[in-house]
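Notes to self after the call with IL:
- keep both proteins in one doc
- input above output, always
- annotate only the second one for now

Protein 1:
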Amino acid sequence: MPRFSIIVPSHGVAGRLSQALDSVLAQSFTDLELIPVCDSPDSPAADVVGEHAERDSRVAPVHSPPSAGLSGARNAGMRAASGGYLLFLDGDDVLLPGALAALDARLGATGDVDVLYFEHERAPWWEGEPSNPAAPLLASAPGGAFAPARAPRLTGVPLPAWSAAYRRSFVAEHRLAFPDGHFTDVGWGGLTTLAAERVAVLRRAVVRHRLRRQGNRLNQPGAHQRELLDQVDLVLTRAAERGLAGERARPLFAQLFATVLKTASRPERLPSGHRAFFRRAHRLYRRHRPAGFRVPAGSLGVQHRLLAAGAYTAFSALRAANRSASRAAERVPRPRGLRARLRYRAQLRRPIDPRLAVYCAYWGRGYACNPAAIHAKARELAPHIRSVFLVEAGKEHAVPQDVDRVVIGSRRYWEVLARAKYLVNNANFAEGVVKRPGSVHVQTQHGTPLKTMGVDQSTYPVVAAQSGSFAKLLGRVDRWDFNLSSNRHSTQMWERAFPGSYEALEYGYPRNDVYYTATAQDVARIRRELGVPEGRTAVLYAPTHRDHHTGFESGLDLEAFCEAAGEDVVVLLRAHYFYDRGRAGASGPAGRIIDVSAHRSSEDVCLAADALITDYSSIMFDYANLDRPIVVYADDWDVYRETRGVYFDLMATPPGPVARTPEELARVFGDGTYAGAESRALRAAFRERFCEFDDGRAAERVVRRVLLGESPEAIPPVTPLAERVPAPAAVTPARS
């Protein structure tokens, strides 16, 4: 029998679940079983759990339907547990290093107590300085094991379930289970304390609870707030049945009704039925108030008296007087210039145009990426919707002549932003753009994340210094209604990097559709346009941006590479789009290096290439859809990983051979290894993981769901990877 069973519900937390599981499996104390609770075998969390179960036999997942809620998930985990003590961990929290060893040592000192309470950290979502809210409560508890009557304030109600360890035989003997519904921790904490005969405390933080940017769901408005009273009634009824002594009943009552009054004093939590909530709370207060209970001092005491009297009108007046005047700052338009501000404000007073869609890519660089692909499909499937593409001044030529375009900053620019029903972008709209009720913002993204993004950059000083205000970033995230994803990895990382209330659309990237719809004739035409000599092997070299560099550095002597790789090789050089204002044309020996940095379409460049060399650019994930050779040139991986941060170890799961030096890279191409059997095997595994939703119909799915309003069930399903046929390459690479 393992010493500890750690139960981890995972609903809605797939983005950080791997960190929670890793924090358990990395403990120095190893006598444990880890029980993740997933919604279903095909849920996003199940993929994460499955990977951990394959690596570690201590992982024993179970399933509980989402309808069963948090209580059902925990109860399912308890039924499967076999350990001596039960611990609960939310799927986006972590066990601190050395936590289990400290618990084991404390239990060894106290003996087999029913409940061992411990401290926990509350960490802000931006990884700020954590607090320790349980410390004051536990500080006054006796030093060893003790009966609950010796510390009557330690009721369990103020502590979450993951701030204690519970002896499994004690839980089974008393048939304890998490009560159904919301606020299950309130009921569980009260019931376990009532049943316990011997408890102890550990004055050390064991769990780091990471607050969600969206806030605790229990603080969100809705009818579920009424379920708090169900838990209060359950605990106090059980206390009365047990004949709980007054010295214990009074603190229990005070803590439960402190929680009730916190909800009653915040009418925004109960948009309707607030009076009914108050009336029922009044009845429970009168029924369960223990003899000798004295109301607290101050404003809280006044609220107690008004609740006891059932004085709803007076309570409401007090609540209104005490409500904080500071709320979430109203977003006001901040376009530069007085005329622009006034014009934008005036347009915001006009009704939204339900047949207007605004698109933008790469901050107005032109007609490109996912927004362009969605726009093209919308013209086909939703011609009743007028489309406007935003472009920066001087880049109007980068938008096709038959596409309506508006220059950023112009008078019409603010007009269409104010009135459009649909706003589609692969970056973000201007800081001052207001999210109007009824408008629909679609964030398409522009790559699969290998490097850290969004708020995950905050712990990397070089990147954070260039990222600007994370608060402003999240203000822009709050405008998103939908966020596109091309694989489960992206879905999980976007959840971490851009915490918000948007809906993830696992539809694939529309810009990648062309990798399955282009023909051999299309490939030949693009190669002619780029100047690729017929019959030559075109190798695309596409390095990523490095935050610790001030300008573009190719990182590779391309002329030397061409000489070593063979006479039939030409290189297509594509710099990161931060440096895309390069020259177009040929250079190097016999025109074998073709600079395609200024070409508007990275998809065209990929179609033209017979193989790809990149370092850590997200282009590798898109190019993998073509099932053509990929080589990773990782001459500074350790530096990049430390300065930028990465979400997974690319060196452990690359899409093809890895070269660390120019000589290794030349050899990989010179002997044909880049296209050999091992390369194909690595690429197949990579495609299985990262080409999950790209099948040539991503744009169609987005248009049908967002612009045409079709139900999720009506959206065309993703074609299995084995059934997809990528666009053909112009040249079949030589194989070793």
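Protein 2 (the one to annotate):
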Amino acid sequence: MTARPDVTVIVAVYNTMPYLTECLNSLMNQSIGAGRLEVIAVDDGSTDGSGRELDRFAACHPETVTVLHQPNSGGPAAPSNRALDLATGRFVYFVGSDDHLGQEALERLVAYADAHESDVVVGRMVGVNGRYVHQKLYTANAPDISLYDSPLPFTLSNTKLFRRELIEKYRLRFPEDLPVGSDQPFTVEACVRARRISVLADYICYYAVKRGDAGNITYRADHLDRLRCTARIMEHVAGLVPAGPRRDALLARHFTWELSKLLLADFPSLGLDTRRKLCDGLAVLLDAYYTDALRDATGVRRRVRFGLARRGAVDALTRAIEEETAHGAPPFLLEGDRAFALYPGFRDPAVGLDDRTFEVLGETVSGRLAAGTRFESADWEQEGADLRLTVSLRLRVTGDTSSAVVALVQGAMPPSADRPGARRLPRGSGTPRAPGDFGAVAAGDGRHTLLRALVPVPAEQARKGVRVYVTVAGAVYEIPVRTEGLPMPLARRWGEEDPHRVAARPNNKGRLVITTAPLVEHRAGPGTRLWRRLRTKRKRSR
């Protein structure tokens, strides 16, 4: 290669066959052309034939592909650094050796960087085989985005186009002692120092593959390793960005993802010593970086788990995770306009957490009411030209239910259940006496409220399904009405005097889907049994 390439692609390789072959093919087939491309692949002591596959490609493409071999270093950082020292392209692009690129990826990325004088370009990335990739950054092309008020902090892998001049100016390299997340310090610092960051969202540039053997290094690390690596990353961020809203915007990602993942359903199965060490390490990070703004912006589920870990309440934290895994989120306690999640440790003096840790601060807690709602009954009756729904629901709320607002409506999700037709749950108990009335009684276990309502439903709207909306503590929850096995209204209600056939089935959300079609003469004309049956029903209903 005589001319300076536009882009150097760096591939750190360790035991990624057969995925490596597809990765290399995707590089050799790039529309940018071999003359504008340099590939530097570093074999980090592979034992599965990856090194031989690299050598085969280098022999086929000697002007484009350079291969280096080294003893295993334990992660992608060291081979990536070695390749950076040899790179000559105007831009550098990193590719995981089990991933692959869209055919026009490099050509489009380089052109976009040149057009907008970008130091960093983030190309659209998607997951393969169930690999999760955060997508909010890729809603539209964006020539100039901010690291601090965009979803970029949730996309901190190094799989981006970087201007090599920026990398060398600040001597950006990967920390070689981090087995997990070593690309984050590099990417964060590049984005902090970049003059312009752009997003190319209208083309899939990168396909991130979840390997069938779960061999990606992120999936192999244990809890304590992940905690140690996350602590190093957060310390690096804190050294680049002073305390304040900008730092919070970056660290919100680590509280939402890396640290939260340490307190998932597998936490109770860890040894007691490991659980204690995790809580101790989390407490250090929470004390250093978990500001009041971050705490209030964190959902109550994570906020409680962090709070229990910070207090070293290992037993209460273990119970909270076990109970939520087995039974779903706990019920609300309503007190006036405030709602609290009744997790273990709530108002426990031995734990010592304040009420705000357990308070639902305006967020919708996923599944809180819908998953915790039990249908006592949902019965349909014919009422003149319309239908009447009698529904009894057991909601997982307790306490002062007068602050809850309930609506039973048809059609689209309302912005709030507090709307015409909604009813505020009354204090005490009562029984609905007429359609549209509401009654609420406290369940015997003290952890539920029983709601019963009679609601007239216009026949035309029944096809849209019926849902219950509950507003609690400023958040709206939607509860589909179970429809399996409900009696059907007469077909003539949709077909006037012409007989129609009606099919009904619940969809995957439990909502009733009703379809109708006219019965044509050759399928059911006068004299047939079906015609006589429909005519008889029509006469009886008049």
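Annotation: The two ends are 89 Å apart (CA to CA). Confidence is low (pLDDT under 50) at residues 484-496, 521-542.
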